[in-house]
Amino acid sequence: MDVIESHVIEGHGAKIPVIGFGTMTLKDNLCVELIEAALHLGYRHLDTAQNYGNEREVGEGFRAAGVPREDVFITTKVWFNRLAPGDLERSVDESLERLKLPWVDLLLIHWPNAQIPLAGSIEALCKVKRAGLTKHIGVANFTVAMLAEATGVASEPLAALQIETHPYLDQTKVLAAAHRLGLAVVGYCPLAPGKVPADAVLQRIGRAHNKSPAQVSLRFLEQEKIIPIPRTSKRERLAENLGSLEFKLTDAEIGMLARPGSRIVSPPQAPQWDSQA
């Protein structure tokens, strides 16, 4: 059932399925089996990264599912210590070798690196796109200023920005900047691990729609034009997350969920984040 076939968000030519399967921390046979199961359920968007250490398994799971390559949107990311011109291109060759794919749909800079000039990294990213190793390029974990700089120096259009998004983090400023520049926004940690299931507001809204708190959180992001990429290690959650596309929140319910709170992911290489709006 290709339930997401007609649900896409566009960014400079990229048509990205509005919900994806995030694979961070998934390894070995479990990763392979979940990728295959997700594709059989109807997922058509897979997200991996060099730093996840599972590109090989993601590629294996994709092939096991038997879905045509052109039907699946596959993203990988370049780690922040591989952003120097020359090294970036080599790292992409390594990713494709692990995935056993001739190209990916979207290649992202995973985190910015203050020690490597951004202009050189962006041009290397553009070079990879022109070489046909990725259909689209973009960035992750960039601030408003970094996004402006990146789009300003890019010789190829940036299609997407990937950032942390969930009901407890106000990303208004960078979301507005991305949408103004025509980029699609992909959101990781959309279920704010540990917070969503027990949230009383999400539970109450979910009961009104006969949906789970997780489905409400995902639907909130989808209606805000954000592409969530929930990660799960449980097969039953794959179908549940996909069910977020089957209902619609009211404006009042969305207003109840737009609550500022805490950031979950902020490693040492993180930039100085934009203040919450």
Quick recap of the structure?
38% of the residues lie in helices and 17% in strands.
Outline the structure in words.
- The protein is α/β, with parallel strands linked by helices.
- The chain has a domain at 8-191 and 225-233: NADP-dependent oxidoreductase domain (TIM Barrel).
- Helix content is 38%, strand content 17%.
- The chain has helices at residues 28-41, 55-65, 87-99, 118-130, 144-153, 172-180, 200-209, 213-223, 235-242, 251-257; strands at residues 8-11, 14-17, 21-22, 45-47, 73-78, 104-109, 134-140, 158-164, 184-188, 226-228.
- The strands form two sheets. The protein has an eight-stranded parallel β-sheet with strand order 3-4-5-6-7-8-9-10.
- Helix 1 runs parallel beside helix 9 and helix 2 runs parallel beside helix 3.
- The termini are far apart.
- The model is unreliable at 1-5 (pLDDT under 50).
Explain the layout of strands and helices.
Layout (H helix, E strand, L loop, with lengths): L7 E4 L2 E4 L3 E2 L5 H14 L3 E3 L7 H11 L7 E6 L8 H13 L4 E6 L8 H13 L3 E7 L3 H10 L4 E7 L7 H9 L3 E5 L11 H10 L3 H11 L2 E3 L6 H8 L8 H7 L20
Parallel strand pairs: 3-4, 4-5, 5-6, 6-7, 7-8, 8-9, 9-10
Antiparallel strand pairs: 1-2
What is the end-to-end distance? 39 Å
- Name the average pLDDT: 95
Could you give a short account of the major beta sheet? 8 strands, parallel
The main sheet orders its strands as: 3-4-5-6-7-8-9-10
- Report strand %: 15-25%
Uncertain segments of ≥5 residues (pLDDT<50)?
1-5
Please count the helical segments.
10
Class of secondary structure makeup = alpha/beta
Radius of gyration: 18 Å
**CATH architecture descriptor of the domain at 8-191 and 225-233:** Alpha-Beta Barrel
| Bulk shape | globular
Q: Going by CATH, what is the homologous superfamily of the domain at 8-191 and 225-233?
A: NADP-dependent oxidoreductase domain
